[in-house]
Amino acid sequence: MKNLLYLFIILVGLSSCEDEFEYVFDKTPTERKAEANNELTEELAESEFGWTTTLIVGTSPMPLMGDRITFNFERNGEENNGIVSMTSAYGSAESEFAISSEGGSVLRFLTPNEVLYWLINPSGYDPKAPTGFGADMEYIYTGTMDGKLHFRGKSKDVTMILEKATEKDVNYTRANELRDLYNSTASANFRFLEITGGIDGATEENPQYARIEDPSYAKYFKEELKTRFYSFLHMYKGKRVKGNASSYIFTNEGIIFADPLVIGDKTISTIEYNEELDEWTIADEDITGKFITAELPLVATPGIVDLYINEFFGKTRVGIQGMMVDDYYAAGPIKDFLEANYSNYDAPRLNRLRLVNNFISPDTGENLGSGLVNLDYDGILFAFVPLKMEKLGENTIRFTRDGDIITTITGAAEKMNTDENLVGAIDLLCDEEGWMIGCDIIEANGNMYYDCRFFQVKNPENQMEHMGVVE
Amino acid sequence: MNKILKITIIISALFSLFSCQKEEGLRDESVITYNKTLNTEFDQWIIENITTPYNVEVKYKWDDGEVSNEFTVTPPKIEKAKQFLEAYLNVWIKTYDDEAIAGGNPDFLKKYMPKQIVLVGCPQYNDDGTMTLGLAEGGKKVTIFNIDQFAEVQRGYFDTDEEYLQKRKNAVVKAFHTLHHEFAHIMHQTKFYPDEFKQICKADYTATWTFFQQHDAEVKGFITPYSMLNENEDFVEIVAGMMNNVKYSNEPHAYNINLKDSNGNVLPELGEVIMTEWEWYLYQWGWAYDENYQMTQSPEARAGYNKFLQKLDIVTTYYKEIWKIDLYSLQKRIETAVNSLQLN
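Predict the joint structure of the above. Result:
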């Protein structure tokens, strides 16, 4: 019991009412949070020309999309909220903003606007068919580095870095002009980056091409957003490389590709418009080249000519052999000839034309080789124009008349030799410079679908469409 | 020894009464910081027209605390929020209020209407491919999604201006389905409807209502497949269904439709029948083409129709007697209100 008493006395001796705690902060957490919010609001609102950012968003499986936006924050008195006006190459709009505390100061865009919210709207129930990108509308302030304010998206981790804008950044007139200028090239059959240096094997004499495509992805978006998208298609080490759909970012200098073109270890992310030369040049270091429009598919689909000669012309699929040559799938003067031929009801009617190879005569069973055939519905009566099919390049094919017409249809040979529409169409088909083939390749259900278009080299207005399938 | 123990206990007791607590006064200022939100002209309109007179909070600006974090949703466009709220005030609030006042129950709406309404610009896209267009929480809060598409309809190639406007008006009426539905829940949760209602389709309530098409539901006596879920959903879907079909309530319209004989059997001949939209809806209850491509109402569909009429009678009587709301009169008021809306 004595021991108990001693212990008690020791405890009493050690007890203390000393309360001189040393506070690390001289303010309460609430006060400090309010102060942080106030400082951030003040900083955002005090920048004379606002803040600019190149915001690139994208969360798997969504592609990368972005825009250059300048924010101008107008504070609501002493409150940590107000109106923010946003400007991009697509115009200006306002939103309400607020700064609040939630794991740090959070910048929130409270009301929607057209400039920012096309990146924020949800992607819909099918991520492959989006109406927006579902990016963040709330950004946690993570700190200031070199005068730039760093934010991180609250739910999607999108990085947003705000840099103090200059007077020039506020005015997007030039970006708007460049956007219109670039979009005016959309009427060309093809758009390319012509790379003449900095990439293995690319020279002035032997440029490499990366095709800039309008991705099918764009069709899900409302009309005014459709022109914002691109995807790249290029060849690398003999293989066809197709990039993801992504968005152009228009600036006062040119275009930033939200998802850059990567060829080997080189990256092409920006093109700038050169007023004097009236051309768009690649702005990335160590890479030379420019943006061009073309009427012919300069990026080849390896083996496409052989595929056509041996497979698509040579084999029968769904009971039909070859590639249909008719006005519905054609464009340009050849379409006019085919259309006139289709409307010609004078016997014999020859409006079921197909390009074929290894055509077996229904009459004799003989292999008549390659040519243009008109076969009746029953597959018995035919008129066959023998054509030599030559591979002139990786994606260039030439058709040449190669002998007399073989036919079991009375009057067909004479008509094919004299009818101005049939002769006109066959002459265009057999142009000596041949046809270039440009294809999209789609893999579905275990099949490869070749969505191709033939362009006459001499006059690319002449076009024929065909979908080939490799099962 | 006992003495030492006693001393120890006494000293301990004395020490226990001793306290290091210093009496510090509370701060003069609150430690809670509060930011006055930006009060726009539209905010002021909401306060004056909805919040103050009806004690309803409207939230249309982004507040992640009001929506599920599992989904990406956005606040509505301001112009669409305005359009919706003007319609909400005129088509929903005032019609109920006027009807209740006319029936002698002037406090009805202010007392029972949902006290918070949250507007979301887009639909809530669910993982199963469906979209949520409305949510209600305990009769207090209603969330309305897809406000950006409010009164937006696809204009048909051959639609005249008048036809297009009518389509938009129909869309406005349908946009309030969720509110009518949820408000009806508040009604029956406050005062029960007669048990007799529950007996009419008792055997056909099912959790697997999603397997049923509209026609299947009608054959079993339900206004929608969802109303097959349980008695309460059945009850509220009838109310919402009535309020969704208000066209020609004030002046019945001549519908060109299959005629019926005196026994109610569908005839192959077409002819004009003067009806309101709601009557027209009921007129063709459970109709389907038979093997001879003739429009017909099967005996099962007729039985379903009769069951539905029994339930409809209970619902309308309940509203009239308990809440002094004549649902047919309310249909007329809603039609008038929708026709008065300026849909730009």
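The longest helix of chain B spans residues 78-102.
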